[in-house]
Amino acid sequence: MNTILAGFSEKDISPEYPVPGRLGINHIINPHHAIKAKAAAIKRGNERFLFIVLEIVGLTISENTNIRKQINEETGIPIENIVITCTHTHASPWIWDLQAEMALKFGFEVLDVPWMDKVMTNAARAGIEALSKMSERRILYGEALTKGIVSNRVDPVTRWSICADDEIRNASEGIVDRTVRTLTFTDTEGVPLFMFTNLACHPTAYGGGKTLKVSPDFPYIAERLLKDKYNENLVVAYWQGCAGNINSGKYIKEGSEEEVESSGRRFFEAIDAAFLSSRELDAGKVSYKYEKFSLPVGDFVKKPDEAFEFFEEYCRLIKEKGEADDQDIHDWRRRLKQLDVSVLSDGKSMEMELQLLSIGDADMLFVPGEWYVQMYMGLASDNQKRELIVTTVNNFDLLYVPDEGSMHNREWYGVKTDMRSLGDESAIRLYEKARDFIS
Fold first, then answer.
1. Is 242 helix (H, G, I), strand (E, B) or coil?
2. pTM for the predicted model, two decimal places
3. What's the CA gap between 397 and 338, in Å, rounded?
4. How far apart are alpha carbons 396 and 413 in whole angstroms?
5. DSSP 3-state assignment of 197?
6. Full strand arrangement of the beta sheet holding 387-392
7. Among 431, 404, 399, 428, which Cα is nearest to 416's?
């Protein structure tokens, strides 16, 4: 039988009380839906590979390392064989530890440490349990088009695709990839047990950081509907694709329950179509590649002392003002992110990883940072003989990675020079390394 050894698990990582939100200052969010860590493990010969998805905005290098170390010490699986990604839902808490440490020096508390410890502990527990529960499983690949979810947030829209302006709401969706790609593990009878769903889109139906609700956003609704149809124990994990310039729809900034429900239902319909038309992969052909390397940061990344002074100056201004409006929060957060990158890189270079799982004629590539959708299109065009899923790991230390065609316009959202870790040359080099990696 064409099967593979695989095991699955999920653990709750929800905050049990209001916690600091994604924007940090004066922004507290409340538990609304449960958020989870979801894990799938596979085995090929004597080698094991583990894939963990967390329903949060993103992790830092230190948190990623902490989770992998816990799993390695308990199970012996090599750290490089552990892939950790985040769904990048903007309706999730802040979890960037180094930035929180910097902010606390100036009286701004942006991280709940007990909750962060729960995230790391339970993510590790999910991985350890998945590795301990392996059985014979079939594995399927499918794809289908989504409808009414995906929108480019910078082209043709100049600032927000999440917007109350009717003219923008009715504008073209821009350059997008509407395809949902699924990797489904079933039992030997074909009942789905665990499903990875890949889409180049931020889960932002609740709004671009304005929501006061902790939630996995629209993928949560799709999972609920899939459980109702197929198996109440089915686990559905979201692999965010190249979505640095892509949001879900063109809605109001605050988002709404109605938008989450409607986007989730449309997502369910596409996933269901992909699953029903999926084909079985050759489970006897499994390979894995890993590469660790460094690339120079851009000229706009300051030296640590200079970045610290730049951040300290704005903290003083906000304290003197006595309150922070939306623009203050945006500017403060941008300077904090820049300080984070400056400290991590020492103003010189950033360390990163590429990971690639191949099963049959399907490749699953994991890349650091928030890649623009055009970059996926370029890789897929060069890889036409094989199916390709690209997932952004959402390691916030790297931030935005625009495609070469977008680099000239420094005012597009997400391409501002003080919100990027890599300069243009390093961003191009990272893309080239990924292209060579899968070839």
1. coil
2. 0.95
3. 10
4. 16
5. strand
6. 286-296, 349-359, 362-367, 387-392
7. 399
